[in-house]
Amino acid sequence: MAWPCRGSQSGCPQEGRPDTAIHWGGALVKEPDYRSNSLLRGLGILECFSADSPELTLSEIAEALSITSSAAYRFVVTLEREGYLSKHKTSYRLAPRVMDLGYRYLASQDVYDIARVPADELRAETGFTVHVSVLEGTEIIYVYRALSNRAMVSNVPVGSRLPAFSTTMGRMLLSDLPEEDLDRRFDGYVFERMSPLAPSSLAELKPLLKEDRERGYVAQRSHLSTGTFSIAAPLVSRHGRTLGAINLSGHEMQLHPDEALIGKVRATARTISQML
């Protein structure tokens, strides 16, 4: 049984999935699968909710997970009583406890904790919005935002996921990966471009990443949001690993990528990197 809520590119688990076959001593043996299908179903329910579907009925949840309404009801009632879902008339929506888990995740990340003050300082110095993100699979996750008070602002909420190949921070994060890692991550990936300027394949992306790595920053118009310009630089640990990225974002009529502004972004990135 497929779990459609997680999306086709996230490796959805399947109920009744056979044990994983591995080689041991020249023989093919099975590795026990210790995953809990009940837990996976509960997580699958939480992942069904999105900005496009903030509220779902019990029948919609059951249909999304391809389970019976009675089975869905048991999971939904449990999640509601534990504070992860709230009921509104005949539909359900995510409850504040889910957000609490998200903030616990952020608080556990060195990048989030260390980058906050320098990001705030860069926003105060330039007047533009500053974002910090980390890489997960083929997406970036926004873990911090210092929001500008300008009338025209780049406003991507914390927790948002965007395709790495179409973002300046994503390009910085991908540029640090070995070629074999890139091949693995993008195996079967569909490059859904929102701008003709974005690469349409891994073959087009790789030379751009090489240039990004050599340059040390990315400055370009957004491939996702019309009229937005962004400057990004990597956050590199003392061990030489790129752990995150920072960008400065604003309307292209206000943010001009001169050497001084690029230098401020890179200097902030270096300040954060020295503490990672």
UniProtKB/TrEMBL annotation:
Tell me if Transcription regulation is a UniProt keyword of this record.
yes
Q: Where is the HTH iclR-type domain?
A: 36-96
PROSITE patterns according to UniProt: HTH_ICLR, ICLR_ED
What InterPro entries is this protein classified in?
GAF-like_dom_sf, HTH_MetabolicPath_Reg, Tscrpt_reg_IclR_C, Tscrpt_reg_IclR_N, WH-like_DNA-bd_sf, WH_DNA-bd_sf
Does this UniProt record's set of keywords contain Acyltransferase? Answer: no
Keyword annotations: DNA-binding, Transcription, Transcription regulation
Matching entries from Pfam families are given as: HTH_IclR, IclR_C
Write out the GO biological process terms: negative regulation of DNA-templated transcription
Domain IclR-ED as annotated: residue spans: 97-276
Q: What is this protein called?
A: Transcriptional regulator, IclR family protein
Q: What is the lineage of its organism?
A: Bacteria, Pseudomonadati, Pseudomonadota, Alphaproteobacteria, Rhodobacterales
